[in-house]
Structures are given as C-alpha cells and as structure tokens.
Amino acid sequence: MLFAAFAFAGFSLATTTPAYAYLDGATVSMALQAVTGAIASVLLFGKIYWSKLKSIFKRQQD
Predict the structure, then answer these.
(1) What does the pLDDT average to over 38-60?
(2) How far apart are the C-alpha atoms of 60 and 62, rounded to whole Å?
(3) What contacts 24+ positions apart, CB below 8 Å, involve 13-19?
(4) Which of 3, 4, 51, 60 has its C-alpha lying 20 to 30 A from 36's C-alpha?
(5) For 20-47, what is the HEC assignment?
(6) Is the dihedral of CA 18, 21, 23, 28 positive or negative?
(7) How many contiguous H segments (helices) and E segments (strands) does the chain have?
C-alpha cells in the first residue's frame, strides 16, 4: 500500500506541466494574513488552556 502511494506520488510529479500562473501582491498578502491569523489563534488557544491546566494543579491557599 505504501509503495503504491509513493509510486502514485512519483508518477504525478513526473508528469506535471508548468502552470504559468500569476500571483499578485494582494494574493500573497492574503495568504500571509491567513498564516498569521492561524498562528495567533493557536497561540491564544494554547495560552487559555495552559492557564486552565495550571489552575487545576495549583495549590489552594487559605
């Protein structure tokens, strides 16, 4: 099964043709904003749930 996947991937890459596509500045900017937003949301998610996890193991002071 793994050999078939590698064979398919190799065949697909060997038979590709150039796309001659054009990426303008707005497309690159939009992609960078999407990546930055994804990273920010993962960091915020981690911060929120890390503090919840720490509060579970934190000692209660009287």
Answers:
(1) 88
(2) 7
(3) none
(4) 51
(5) CCCCCHHHHHHHHHHHHHHHHHHHHHHH
(6) negative
(7) 2, 0
Per the structure block, which two tokens stand in for 13?
Answer: 């890459």
Q: Which tokens go with 6?
A: 């590698």
CA distance 12 to 9: 5
Q: What is the pTM of this model?
A: 0.53
φ, ψ for residue 37, nearest 5 deg? -65, -40
Can you tell me which residue has the tokens 């919840």? 52
Containing 49, the helix (H) or strand (E) segment is helix 25-57
| Sequence-distant contacts of 41-45: CB under 8 A, at least 24 apart | none
| Gap between the Cα atoms of 42 and 36, Å rounded | 10
